[in-house]
Amino acid sequence: MRTSQDLRQALRRIDGRGYKAYKGLQGEYSFPRYRLSIDHVQGDPFAAPSRFSARIATADSGLPPRYAATRSGRIAAGDFLARRFAHQAALQVRGSRGTGGSGRIEIECGGQQVLERNSVLLTPESLEVRFKVGLPAAGRRVLARQAEEMLFEELPLILAGVLLFENLPAADLRRQVETHEDQQALRRQLAERGLVAFVADGAVLPRRSGVDDRPLAGDDAVPFASPPQLRCRLERPHAGPLEGMGLPAGVHLILGGGFHGKSTLLRALERGVYEHLPGDGREWVLTDRNACKIRAEDGRSIQGVDISAFIDNLPLGRDTRAFSTPNASGSTSQAANIVEALEMGARLLLIDEDTSASNFLVRDARMQRLISKSQEPITPLVDRVRELLERHGASTILVTGGSGDYFDAADRVIQMAAYRPREMTGRVAELIREHPSGRLPEAPLPFGELPRRKPLASSFDARRGKRAVKIDARGCHTIFYGRETIDLALVEQLIDRGQTRATGLAIHLLAREFFPRGGSLADGLKWLDEQLDRNGLDVLSPFKVGNLARPRPFEVGAAINRMRALRVGATAG
User: Fold this and answer.
1) Cα–Cα distance between 448 and 383 in angstroms, integer?
2) Its pTM surpasses 0.70
3) Is there a contact between 333 and 380 (Cβ–Cβ < 8 Å)?
4) Average pLDDT, the chain
């Protein structure tokens, strides 16, 4: 193996040469306390930065063995170390020097959520950190002295603050790991108690802005306080007992006037499928992992989805049992989103009136009298929401401020008033008796079994130009898959660009290894989850990368369902 001195001498030899001279540096080098690997060198200073990694034996790092002993500990500690790397880089790196991205040292570390990533890999045997380095150049000429400064002065200081336990803020690391373990324990108790969501007393739900996901600070942040009727007590192994609002399986309405916190509560529940950082304010907001946000999505592609439970009897006799369209309306897209979520195993649907098609949610009594059911192909959700629970085991949390017709279907009604929840189920029962809605149920037939669609492997062509496989992501909500652009802007529980990259690669893995067998989408997503559990995120990429974060199966399925090239074969019941 080459040494650090070999790297220093090689840098000095290539000073001033063309940028391709950096390619000769690829390989592994031994430094005094770690091994540095140059895994891939960028083609020029304007390309994506070069991929580096550093590895140390876990025992040599001094990390307590307990952090690497469990999956939860590895994820939480890895997340902490990635953020620590980013912090140290901000302190130590002088910044841009040369042209393009020259002089940068970066790592993927995410926002307020704690996700499984491959930027830091911790095992009982080793600790590996994967990061990017913008190797410096003037135009396309190597600036070796600046590169030497980065790799022999700045980088060792960064790595010393990450790889060596003696230099870490041990109390902060312990807090993050224990918070993560407590969140995992609370999730287990949700399942044991039949709860679909929990919001702790004192939680800070609002965020600073639409582009800043940190908790709102100051007097404007009203701490959450559970209604007494819904308060329950859960146990945390590290931090002790915790009280808050527990929502059991069922149909729940969140009501209130505008700007009183309805949507803020729902958004917190959307993100409650993920663990959060200590001090985030939402770290004790836990939602069933199998929760899906459902909304209208005008213009999306739909392929072979049975939406007949919601939309049937279309003009010209068009069949909706295997409905396809390249340009869905609000109501058809929302119907497809529900059916697709159920097909993938959703156990909780999160719906906001503000982002829904109004004609999909309800038809009131007056409209029923004006337009007969024989002339209306839509069976609104209000007539199916109980069936979703009773026939398919899917609870619903619906935010509404404009329709009382859901009162008859609800198990719990919560009013948000000045950001504080009030339990209103008893009062709503009185209103139902005093003021019957007058509307008639409109479901012509029961909500039947869900078909299991089988994506055809030929749908997934990853070729672009001369490249046999071209898969990339732009930001958090766009995937380039071959010649197709997958728009995920309205898939609201996809929260990290690393998840988006991983989703594109996961589709390709399914297209290569699972869908050619003729398996269903639902079974394919289960298979994918097993592969990720067994082999980690590296199973997705043929190259050593550190920019992936684990997506949920629901978001991978959502991306597949939105591919305009998707075609599905015969469905199985």
Assistant:
1) 14
2) yes
3) no
4) 96
